[in-house]
Amino acid sequence: MPKRKHADDNFDYATKEEDSEHEFSGLEESSSDDSEDVSPPVLPYILTYFLTGAKEYEEIPVDFEWFDPQKQDFEGFQMLLRQLLGTDASFFHLGAIADLILDQKLLGSTVKTDGNESDPHAVLTVLNLKQHKNKPVIKDLVHYLLDRASTDPSLSPLPSLLAPNSGNEVGLILSERWVNIATEVVPPMYEMLLEEIQWAIDDKEPYTFSHYLVWSKVYHAIPSILDETTNRPMKKMKPKSSNGVNDGQSMYYFHPEDEILHNHAILHGNFNYKTPVPEGDSRNAFQDFGITPQGHLIMLEAGALKSAVGAMKAEFPFSPAVSKMGMDES
């Protein structure tokens, strides 16, 4: 049976025998900007704008339900992993990664919108790299990460942190959601993960991590092909770097919570995918819309994750209606 999960701090996350769940409504973020300088924080809004020329975005109420990873999520996990790993997803046995997630029956969360048997719209979990070091898929993941880390000086400490003789216990955090899922679902998932890790430690299970490595992704704005080939009305995006200078190469986040994780991290950096997007491939829509994706890694010391999650809750709070719907009224 699934663990009952919700986002209200006043209630314990307890296992129940009944096949029921807590529900609460979330609102998609909205924005409206008539100026010429548009720097959207979330990719769906960029794609919606490029496709329709829309100036406003509708708030859509959604009932989110939290569950443990379960066997019916296997195919959904593979789809989310394929999105997270980008064009290099084919290097990995996604089914083997999904199996590792499912083997941790009481660790990690999914978000669904149509009951327990529906497909997961988001997943967050952690894999113990040391515990699973002899599994082929973990060897592939670590080898890939070390190779990609060598391409960015910001990631140069990663090999020593992941070295077998380092004494470090590194948990690989995999977090992905469909692009139309609001960021507000993420803080409770992290909060529940920390609580579940503590429960596992109390039960003498191998989850006493020294560090967490978050595998994520970012994107950069490039000239849009659609701007040159269509006459549809749309605003030009003028990305700005942190110092406010228009540089045309600024980084945006697929996962806005990553910016908060940066503030608590010991390192973070980007890497290019090995596999380019083939010409004519449907995935080339990213380039068509003026977006170049990259892989992104964030390393935190274990104690820093709790502070980061607290900052996430402050930055992406739930509305009063959401908190009310999160209560157990039984």
How would you portray this structure in words?
The chain has about 325 residues and is an alpha+beta fold. The protein has helices at about 45-50, 75-85, 95-105, 135-150, 160, 185-200, 225-230, 255-260, 285-290, 300-315, 320-325, and strands at about 25, 60-65, 110, 120-130, 170-175, 210-220, 250-255, 265-270, 290-300. Strands 1, 2, 3, 4, 5, 6, 7, 8 and 9 form a 9-stranded mixed β-sheet that branches. Helix 2 packs across helix 3 (about 95-105) and helix 6 packs antiparallel against helix 10. The longest helix is centred in the middle third of the chain and has 17 residues, at about 185-200. It starts with about 20 loop residues before the first strand and ends in a 5-residue tail after the last helix. Mean pLDDT is about 75; it is low at about 5-55, about 230-250 and about 320-330.
Order of helices and strands: EHEHHEEHHEHEHEHEHEHH
Ends apart, CA distance between termini:
18 Å
Task: Give me the Rg, rounded.
Answer: 20 Å
Described by its quaternary structure, the protein is: single chain
Judged by helices, strands and strand pairing, the structural class is alpha+beta
* 3D shape: globular
> Counting H and I runs of at least 4 residues, what is the number of helices?
11
Number of beta strands: 9
Strand content range: 15-25%
Poorly predicted runs of 5 or more residues: 6-55, 232-248, 320-330
Give the overall average pLDDT.
76
Helix proportion of residues, in percent? 25-40%
Largest sheet, described in full?
Answer: 9 strands, mixed
